[in-house]
Amino acid sequence: MTSLIYPPKPRPGDRVAVVSPSAGLPGLFPHVYELGLRRLREEYGLEPVEYPTTRIMGADPRDRARDLNDAFADPTITAVLATVGGDDLITVTPHLDDEVLRANPKPYFGYSDNTNVLNHLHRLGIVSYHGGSVLVHLGRPGALHPLTADSLRAALFTADWYDLTSAPEWGDEPNDWNDPGCLAEEPAMFPGAGWQWQGPATVVEGPAWGGNLEVLHWLLAADRVAPVASLAGSVFLMETSEELPPAVEVYRMLRNLGERGLLATFPAALVGRAKAWEFGRRLTPDEKRAYAREQRAAVTRAFAEYAPDTVLVFDVDLGHTDPQLIIPYGGEVRIDAAERRISVRY
User: What Gene3D superfamilies does the entry give (predicted)?
Assistant: First the structure.
């Protein structure tokens, strides 16, 4: 297992790229997008630089890749932030210029469909950052969530170890961006019950790898995941999307990773809190709790069959729920199951 390179960090006052390699949703929801840009300036002291396809839905994959290549190549740009996810970034990464990316490593922030880019940078030996969306998190109605804000600030500007914090309250029922007045009030939040731990009371340390489970499955089908041996010892990150995959499919996807030999190589896994509500599937509180239980059971079953000694931590705020903690993708993660503590090195 080879250590990846941490890119140099931006400083307040720097220019940072804002790109939409997955979907140009800023063009559909400019009020949310402009709030995210304003917070980048006012809360973090960074100057966002927008690229040509950032507000264009359905832009050609080659054009979206060109924006990424240009952002990495520009010596005045010190970090790259994705606006949001989507579902076709797998068609963009083949057009990336790997020589440019290797020669100009920069912190890249994104999650969900951006798992494609995180995995691509990982294969090039570059640490990136799972989390941070200009629309979803910087454009959060009402105010930035304090845990998101602090984690993102630490990931952007520091290179130290950072202790993750379990959210005392969380949400997965966002405000409707179609309503121009959606930004006035914070979204609904619910009491947190802390992280849920399974497995041996041991300490695990290793580089993070994984991301959105559905996207990882696409990457496996496209043969774009590194050899099993090179991922051995990684801390597995796993979260599911707003498409709310059923528990049986979550189990099957993990079973496929197990058959490939991956699960057995992971000494620990951080499992994101399962999003259990979407505008097209407005589950009741009881239905949401049942969905979350079924998801946890599916993950537990797969690891019990393929990696029974893996430390599992459930309900970590690293995916499609609110708040969102930033995880260094390819960077160091330390999980102390005895002390119930998770630390990351940004």
Answer: Class I glutamine amidotransferase-like, LD-carboxypeptidase A C-terminal domain-like
